[in-house]
Amino acid sequence: MPVPVSNSLIQPTAGCPWQLLNTVESLAERRAAEARLLEVHSAVDGIFSLDERSRVIAWTLGAERLLGYPAADMLGQNLDRLVPPRCRDAHNADVSRVAAGGKAHLVDSTVEVPVIHADGRDLITELSLSQWSQNGKPHYICASRGTRHPA
Amino acid sequence: MLAVANETERASKEQLRTAFDHATTGLTLVDDSGRYVRVNRAFADLLDYGTEELVGRSFREITADTDHDADVAVANDLISRSRRAALREKRYAERAR
């Protein structure tokens, strides 16, 4: 497998013969990262991440299996399409409040929330939410542990 | 005074050697006869060699046949100063078992 190599000429001390300095990128770390990503992508849990405006920036196969929406339909979309209409105003108000610097109450907790499956069913899912920061903006990772019908 | 200067130079060289040896990017120094003068652990690991197995060997021995000519062309370009650096993809030879 080809690896990225860069070459430059150096002269360790004046008058000495030249030497070729080569830097060779190991692909091992990249392969390990890809393997880890594949593990996450294939996890049974539905894992997805959101930007500060609640737009989907990652959507795993597990999320597709649990909620029925393929990644191609979800990436770049607002998560509110999964929120039942009766809860949507409250959800969007919460997103706006957090985007404006308010505290995200659900971060680092596991809660049961209503969700609309792609086939239209109104379900309940157990969701764990954690927060990370990119370019100074909050992003969220959500792990859905399964769905059930409302009692 | 000289002793202090020598000690400072020795410490500086040691620091550079440590940085070279422990860099996570593969690093090699090849002399003008094409032999490895120094290689670091990251490079040796990449090809499944020990660093001591590579020092003194010609780059040709561990370069895929398909890439010998490109290596020589790059070195010639650098020596003739027709370019200051080269960035490319290179294939190494599989280690014979």
Automatic annotation (TrEMBL), chain A:
SUPFAM superfamilies given in the database record: PYP-like sensor domain (PAS domain)
Coiled coil: none
Pfam families cross-referenced by the UniProt entry: PAS_4
InterPro entries referenced in this protein's UniProt entry, alphabetically: PAS, PAS-like_dom_sf, PAS_4
Domain PAS, residue spans: 30-102
Cited NCBIfam families: sensory_box (TIGR00229)
Official protein name in the record: PAS domain S-box protein
From TrEMBL, chain B:
Gene3D superfamilies documented for this protein: PAS domain
InterPro entries: PAS, PAS-like_dom_sf
Highest taxon, organism lineage: Bacteria
Domain called PAS: residue spans: 12-82
Pfam families per the UniProt record, alphabetical: PAS_8 (PF13188)
Coiled coil (residue ranges): none
SUPFAM superfamilies: PYP-like sensor domain (PAS domain) (SSF55785)
UniProt protein name: PAS domain S-box protein
